[in-house]
Amino acid sequence: MIDVDALTVCYGSATALDRVSLRVAPGEMVALVGSNGAGKSTLLKALSGAVPTAGGSIQIRGKFAHVPEGRQLFQDLTVDDNLRLGGLRSRDRDTSWVYEIFPDLRAKRRQPAGSLSGGQQQMVALGRGLMSQPDVLAIDEMSLGLAPLVVRDIGQKLKELNSQRGLAVLLVEQNARLALSLCNMAYVLETGRVVAQGRCDQLIKSPLVVDAYLGSASGGLS
Predict the structure, then answer these.
(1) Which pLDDT value is given to residue 62?
(2) Residue 98 domain-assigned?
(3) What tens digit of pLDDT does each residue of 10-29 get?
(4) What span, in angstroms and rounded, lies between the C-alpha atoms of 197 and 186?
(5) Distance from C-alpha of 24 to C-alpha of 28, rounded to nearest angstrom
(6) Which of 98, 116, 212, 218 fits 120 for a cystine, CB–CB 3.0-4.6 Å?
(7) Alpha helices, DSSP H only, in 37-172?
(8) CA distance from start to end of the chain
(9) Distance (Å, rounded) from C-alpha 78 to C-alpha 198?
(10) pLDDT tens per residue across span 192-207
(11) What are the pLDDT digits (tens) for 92-102?
């Protein structure tokens, strides 16, 4: 679904991504983890065509949707209107199936999106991305500012979408424990370079990953 090869992105004289390669296969859940400033969001912006590339290549097969960091909802529009905006390209603006995935939103559908809790707003952002009927969904910092229980519930929804609908997912997360617990494969990004990659069940035992990102903190799915 996504094939990134030796991708380089520069901001002026600063190199944000340095020959990064990454792959997301059909139906796969892939994590991209790293600290703040590692280049994770830049990679997603490059995939979306929001920033120019200085080298390498990007190939995306099928429909691609990007759920941005911070949700970026239209706060004064209703939940339903925010969702419908996600269906503009597909021309299918029926939102009923999104409420089946996120039933907590059904009673809020006529409320301004800005009046919702952080977790509910994240559900709207995910639902808006799903409205385009994507083959692969890229999510930037899903857990940002949310309580662990809310994050766990949303993460479980993602796993269900992956297993039941075959949705491929690229999960970009500062919360490495969460990302590694949700996904099958992972890449670790530091200062614009991939420093480790492999199966999540192997990386979660790697001294490099444990020392830098996991420590003794909890936060994954049980």
Answers:
(1) 94
(2) no
(3) 999 999 999 999 999 999 99
(4) 6
(5) 6
(6) 116
(7) 40-47, 79-85, 96-101, 118-130, 148-165
(8) 28
(9) 41
(10) 999 999 999 999 988 8
(11) 789 999 999 99
Nearest one of 157, 207, 205 to 182, comparing CA atoms: 157
- Amino acid occupying residue 137: L
- pLDDT for residue 46 is more than 50: yes
Split at pLDDT 50, 70, 90, the class of 217 is very low
Q: Which residue has the tokens 């930037």?
A: 140
Supply the angle between the helices 118-130 and 148-165 in degrees, to the nearest 10.
Answer: 20
Residue 93 in tokens: 């603006």
Query: Structurally, how many domains does the chain consist of?
Result: 1
Q: Which amino acid is at 26?
A: P
Find out whether 128 and 84 touch, Cβ atoms under 8 Å: no
Q: Predicted confidence band at 222 (pLDDT cuts at 50, 70, 90)?
A: very low
Pull the structure tokens for residue 153.
Answer: 């519930």
Domain interval for residue 187: 1-62+136-147+168-213
Pair type for strands 136-140 and 64-67: parallel
Within-domain flag for 97:
no
DSSP H or E segment with residue 202: helix 200-203
Instruction: Note the pLDDT of residue 215.
Output: 64
* Per-state percent for the chain, helix, strand, coil, to nearest 5: 35, 30, 35
